[in-house]
């Protein structure tokens, strides 16, 4: 009021000063960047928070599946080394016996059995691969544990490069390639390779994304849908992995180990008994054929 310009004793001056100070504080706060977020920005923040939680869950499930597969792969290698080599030898002997029996008493059924036995022997030999010595070495190794630092690194890599976070098809191809490399490195226990894959991805310009709120909303919604679909698929894969014949055998081996037994060695001993019987039968048939020819 005009009195304020002339006299410090104006009765309204203090009230006006206080109102003016408050107004300045509100103005300063607005200029400092404090503002109410738009509804779409609130929704984007909510969905991003949801996606972050889903990403954590997805990384955990991917790690769980990769670990189960790694454990079963190690067990399969030991099985082939301890039991598989002997089974291949047994199948070879059985094929020879079937061939001799077909010679001794020719018939369509004998020839069919000889052919089937020969095919099974070939398949058994192929399952062992080209390096049986490597399998024998695996049998002598202790069961490999999976280091915790390898698990943590794989989880971090899966969370960073997972294909379900792809922005477009080109991005998905890059991510699938990186994820396949991460899976292979984890399976091989190669920490350095896994770290290199993660470093390459984090330093790549393809890892940078942007644009506006609307586009970000669409990307996040699609990412959530993709992650939820992958989580459902992972649940099915985990069940299938747990119900496989190899997993069942592994579970039995774990129970036997808890009882102080080695199930694979027990199976190998049983195959050794069958091999001895097959060799005896083969010797008898060979002797019979020699007698006939003589």
Task: Furnish the topology, listing elements before pairings.
Layout: H1 2-6, H2 13-31, H3 39-104, H4 108-128, H5 132-140, H6 148-161, H7 169-188, H8 191-202, H9 213-243, H10 245-258, H11 263-293
Bin the strand percentage. Answer: under 5%
Main sheet: strands, sense, barrel = none
The residue ranges in which pLDDT falls below 50 over 5 or more consecutive positions are 1-8, 12-30
Determine the structural class based on helices, strands and strand pairing: mainly alpha
Rg over CA atoms, rounded to whole Å, is: 35 Å
Q: How would you spell out the order of helices and strands? A: HHHHHHHHHHH
Number of helices: 11
Gross morphology: elongated
Helix content percent band = over 70%
The counted number of beta strands is: 0
**Roughly how many Å apart are the termini?**
139 Å
Mean pLDDT level: 84
């Amino acid at each position: 009021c005009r009195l304020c310009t002339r006299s410090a004793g104006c009765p309204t001056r203090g009230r006006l000063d206080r109102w003016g100070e408050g107004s300045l504080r509100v103005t300063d706060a607005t200029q400092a960047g404090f503002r109410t977020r738009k509804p779409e920005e609130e929704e984007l923040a909510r969905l991003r928070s949801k996606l972050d939680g889903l990403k954590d869950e997805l990384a955990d499930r991917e790690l769980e599946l990769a670990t189960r597969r790694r454990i079963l792969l190690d067990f399969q290698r030991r099985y082939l080394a301890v039991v598989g080599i002997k089974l291949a030898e047994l199948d070879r002997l059985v094929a020879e016996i079937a061939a001799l029996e077909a010679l001794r008493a020719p018939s369509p059924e004998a020839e069919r059995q000889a052919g089937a036995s020969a095919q099974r022997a070939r398949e058994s030999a192929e399952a062992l691969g080209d390096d049986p010595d490597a399998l024998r070495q695996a049998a002598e190794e202790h069961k490999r544990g999976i280091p915790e630092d390898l698990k943590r690194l794989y989880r971090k890599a899966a969370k960073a490069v997972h294909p379900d976070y792809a922005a477009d098809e080109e991005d998905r191809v890059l991510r699938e390639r990186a994820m396949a490399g991460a899976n292979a490195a984890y399976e091989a226990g190669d920490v350095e390779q896994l770290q290199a894959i993660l470093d390459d991805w984090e330093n790549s310009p393809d890892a940078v994304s942007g644009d506006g709120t609307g586009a970000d909303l669409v990307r996040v919604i699609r990412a959530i849908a993709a992650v939820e679909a992958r989580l459902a698929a992972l649940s099915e894969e985990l069940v299938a992995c747990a119900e496989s014949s190899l997993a069942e055998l592994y579970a039995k081996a774990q129970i036997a180990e808890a009882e102080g037994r080695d199930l694979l060695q027990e199976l190998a001993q049983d195959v050794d008994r069958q091999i001895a019987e097959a060799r005896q039968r083969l010797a008898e048939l060979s002797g019979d054929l020699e007698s006939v020819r003589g």
